[in-house]
Design brief:
Layout (H helix, E strand, L loop, with lengths): L4 H5 L7 H6 L4 E2 L11 E2 L49 H4 L4 H20 L4 H12 L3 H4 L1 H12 L1 H11 L1 H20 L4 H29 L5 H25 L13 H5 L1 H15 L13 H7 L2 H24 L4 H23 L9 H4 L1 H30 L5 H7 L1 H25 L3 H21 L8 H16 L4 H8 L6 H35 L23 H21 L17 H4 L6 H6 L5 H10 L1
Antiparallel strand pairs: 1-2
Helix pairs in contact: 4-10, 4-11, 4-13, 5-11, 5-18, 7-10, 7-24, 8-9, 8-10, 9-10, 9-13, 11-19, 11-20, 15-16, 15-24, 18-19, 18-23, 18-24, 18-25, 20-21, 20-22, 21-22, 21-23, 24-25
């Protein structure tokens, strides 16, 4: 990035809430300018706490993940270079890489980003084969996907802080090493418990890769060139949602002899690519130093970071996931099931109270629960990723269990759903930008949200009409409608959400927004698995097959080798059970966004004032930079 000397000669403004947001550690700050990938603001850490915030929490963000297609293209806030400490290099010194070195650095970064984001969905089409090979019960079935997403979510808030202490490259290469180790253990798994534990380890590394790649590439590219360079990573992020099911289908052979098309090689293939990407980035970034804050320390991390809130939030979410998983083993009325689910809700309530009164740096801003608009957006955000993830995994299962498709064929049939959701987000982003240039308000976002909710609800309603006798046309059109509706919801809710926050809460609120979104995906997958199993178990009881009982393994392909009468009944059971999963997603019904609700900061509600989100929409500024600019206006 480049900066003129005159910029540093400007009078320094007094420390206020917006400047505090600028100085917080690295965190996700999506830009409204595009539609497919996450973005970050590379900003500095400070121990200063906003005095204007009613909450006792310090306004400081943390990193939060997303699913593969849900975020806008990156923009990066570098306005806080005036706060960079003496031991940090200047912008010019840090961005003097040649075009060739920048190109190779981005190639290596894109390779690792692709692997980390694809790994979340690569098992969706291969999971029936994996479960059959390793003798997984239905209780364990969904945990192959849940384990990766849960650990990826849980460790995200720490990555930005740790990168301030040990450096960006150290976090990136360590994350690649952890991800590679987890992938190797996944490929070598000899039991389903082994595989689940290895997936959890890979998730820790995958989350670090996603965050470190965006921060690192932001700091090596000059500000005026970031939009151009970030498009490669944006395309990578979008492609991963489409490639995951396809790759999972390609590497989904049964593995008594570890054949080349075995599902194990879907994990082993990560190893040479990670090694090659690491070598490329190590050479391209040789002797490149990245910004580290002078006042960052392990002591301050331990003193200020809200470890208690993180443990409570993830512990409550984990209890809910485990509780719903217990349904497949013990039933809804079991003391184990009820106790765990109730405990999960209680812990989440305690987490909310903790966030309200803690003096540490909050994971969630107080406005999230006080403002009706913010609360509604968070509900939509949660249900949106709930439906998207359940659709990805259980459409793949539908094609295999109800139609006898191979895993690769199932991945191909998923294209209307995944491609529709990826492509729909882009025109919505353009529409919002055009609408705001005309109206100068968030009515465009509200319209996009309402239409997206309606279309996605219509799509999942139509999916309920799909059964084992569904025509080819309906298998293409119905998932496409659901995917387009979900794609429309990837961009607009964030903008409405930040509009409801105070300037000092934008960074923290952004982190919380994506933490809720990814938690929705994790819990949604667990609940969808529970509903599918509960719906199919009793109806299979009278059939002479043992596919879903007790701890038995699952082999859906074997259904089509049964006698005709038994096969037809079993396929009907699976088809109707998956239809129930679509019914769950009908909770994405249209929810009205109250446009007249008072925003959290009065200056935003005035028609003559310029809000931070409006500034961000009309420029290359990230929301945190726009917040500071809005304060100055």
């Amino acid at each position: 990035m480049s900066s003129s000397p005159e910029r540093h000669e400007l009078p320094q403004p007094p420390v206020d809430a917006s400047i505090i947001v600028e100085k917080t550690p690295v965190g996700y700050l999506p830009s409204p300018s595009s539609s497919s990938t996450p973005s970050f603001a590379s900003v500095e850490d400070t121990s200063t706490t906003s005095s204007s915030t009613p909450s006792t929490c310090s306004s400081s963000p943390s990193l939060s993940p997303t699913s593969a297609t849900d975020l806008p293209a990156p923009s990066f806030d570098t306005a806080s270079t005036k706060t960079t400490h003496e031991d940090s290099l200047s912008s010019a010194e840090r961005t003097s890489l040649s075009t060739t070195r920048l190109l190779f650095a981005h190639i290596g970064a894109a390779m690792t980003l692709f692997l980390a984001t694809t790994d979340a969905t690569i098992v969706s089409t291969a999971l029936p084969t994996i479960a059959s090979d390793l003798g997984a019960s239905q209780f364990q079935y969904t945990w192959v996907g849940v384990a990766y997403m849960l650990t990826q979510t849980a460790f995200q808030p720490l990555y930005g802080r740790i990168s301030d202490l040990v450096g960006r490259k150290a976090v990136l290469f360590t994350s690649i090493l952890i991800f590679s180790l987890g992938s190797a253990l996944c490929g070598a798994a000899q039991s389903i418990e082994w595989l689940i534990a290895a997936r959890a380890l890979a998730g820790i590394g995958g989350g670090g890769i996603v965050s470190a790649v965006w921060v690192m590439t932001a700091e090596i590219v000059q500000e005026r060139s970031r939009a151009k360079w970030s498009q490669a990573l944006s395309v990578t992020w979008s492609c991963s949602a489409i490639a995951g099911p396809l790759l999972g289908g390609a590497f989904s052979g049964s593995t008594g002899n570890h054949g080349f098309l075995s599902w194990r090689y879907g994990f082993y293939i990560n190893l040479p690519i990670c090694f090659l990407a690491s070598v490329i980035m190590a050479l391209a970034l040789h002797k490149v130093r990245f910004t580290q804050t002078r006042d960052a320390s392990w002591k301050r991390l331990l003193q200020k970071f809200d470890f208690g809130g993180l443990v409570l939030f993830m512990g409550g979410s984990g209890c809910l996931i485990i509780g719903f998983s217990f349904v497949t083993e013990f039933g809804w009325t079991s003391p184990f099931t009820l106790t765990t689910i109730i405990l999960g809700f209680v812990i989440l309530v305690v987490a909310g109270l903790h966030e309200k009164f803690t003096t540490r740096e909050c994971l969630f801003p107080a406005t999230m629960v006080r403002d009706a608009t913010a609360a509604i957006i968070l509900i939509i955000n949660f249900l949106h990723n709930f439906a998207f993830t359940a659709g990805t995994f259980y459409l793949a299962l539908f094609y295999q269990a109800a139609h006898g498709s191979t895993p690769l064929e199932a991945g191909m049939k998923l294209l209307p759903y995944s491609l529709g959701s990826s492509l729909a987000s882009m025109p919505v982003a353009w529409f919002i930008g055009y609408w705001q240039s005309l109206k100068n308000n968030t009515s465009g976002q509200n319209l996009a949200i309402s239409i997206g909710l309606f279309v996605s609800t219509l799509g999942f309603g139509l999916l309920n009409l799909m059964n084992e006798r569904a025509s080819t046309a309906s298998q293409i059109v119905f998932p496409l409608i659901a995917g387009v509706g979900l794609g429309m919801l990837f961009h607009a809710p964030y903008q409405v959400f930040t509009k409801a926050l105070k300037p000092s809460e934008i960074a923290t609120g952004t982190s919380a927004f994506f933490l809720v979104r990814f938690t929705g995906a994790t819990i949604g997958l667990a609940i969808a698995g529970t509903v599918f199993y509960a719906r199919s178990r009793d109806r299979l009881a009278g059939l002479p097959i043992d596919l879903l009982e007790g701890h038995g393994s699952i082999d859906y392909a074997a259904v089509f080798s049964l006698e005709d009468a038994v096969r037809d009944r079993a396929v009907d059971v699976f088809s109707s059970a998956i239809q129930t999963v679509w019914t769950l997603s009908l909770f994405l019904r249209t929810m009205k966004i109250d446009q007249s609700a008072s925003p959290a900061h009065p200056s935003s509600s005035s028609s003559t004032s310029i809000s931070s989100s409006q500034l961000a929409d009309k420029s290359d500024l990230s929301p945190s930079t726009a917040s500071a600019a809005a304060e100055k206006v």
